[in-house]
Amino acid sequence: MRDRLIQYGDLSPLLPAFPRLEEFRIRGASNLSFGRLSHAKLRSFAIESGGLPEALLGELWKAKLPKLEHLELWLGSANYGGITEPAPLEPLLSGKLFKKLKSLGLRNCEVADAIAKAVAASPLLERLEALDLSLGNLTEAGAEALLVSPAVRKLKKLDVHHHYISPVFVKHLEALPLEVDVSEACKAAVHTYGEHTYVDRYIVVSE
User: Fold this and answer.
1) Higher-confidence residue: 199 or 77?
2) What is the CATH number of the domain that holds 104?
3) N or C: where does the chain have the smaller number of CB atoms within 10 Å of the terminal CB?
4) What are the Cα distances from residue 206, in Å, to 12, 74, 159?
5) CA separation for the pair 49, 76 (Å, rounded)
């Protein structure tokens, strides 16, 4: 998927034109805008992206979606406009938005460990049934934050497939009293250039 080849512009008239719509999913985020988003029936909302801009997240936090139960955001890479820290997610993680939200996906993230730590400590997690942090570069640092969070143990499902978590921590996650997907374990790519060694962990979609 190449986000930059998908140019949307202002989609603010789209959702209001379908007042009975319950599920919305879109691929790509370049120049995407929803304006003052408001929809009375929407239960599921998803954006698949190689880099989800902070400005677009800001629009979502102002949205009026009283029946929203599932939110799925592919956060992507900073090289393609994605966020570099959890701070832009704070309005969501505060638990003050989308009161009926039961399922949250913060997927395909280049800073998955930082996101996992923020989610694990968030008030929002207390009322979720499903958490999806898959398709990113999650390591044992993020896994450990999930393991020590009491709220994680109250979930019905945790999905972290496509990850870079060590086998020891994979076993710990599998032992949690809920459905856990820890499939697609990946190995970091190690590159040496002269005296410098670089370790790369790739997300699934970045361009």
Assistant:
1) 77
2) 3.80.10.10
3) C
4) 26, 10, 20
5) 6
Tens of pLDDT, residues 129-149: 999 999 999 999 999 999 999
Asked, for residue 125, whether it belongs to a domain, the answer is yes
pLDDT averaged over every residue in the chain = 94
Q: Are 89 and 59 contacting, i.e. CB atoms less than 8 angstroms apart?
A: no
Say how many domains are in the chain. 1
Q: What is the DSSP letter of 144?
A: H
User: Residue with structure tokens 């938005």?
Assistant: 97
> CB neighbours of 176 closer than 8 A, spacing ≥ 6?
147, 152, 153, 158
**Per-residue three-class SS string for 5-68:** HCECCECCCCHHHCCCCCEEEEECCECCECCCCECCCCCEEEEECCECCHHHHHHHHCCECCCC
- Give residue 83's domain range: 3-200
The per-residue pLDDT for range 40-97, each reduced to its tens digit, is 999 999 999 999 999 999 999 999 999 999 999 999 999 999 999 999 999 999 999 9
pLDDT higher than 60, residue 3: no
Closest CA to 55 of 33, 27, 71: 33
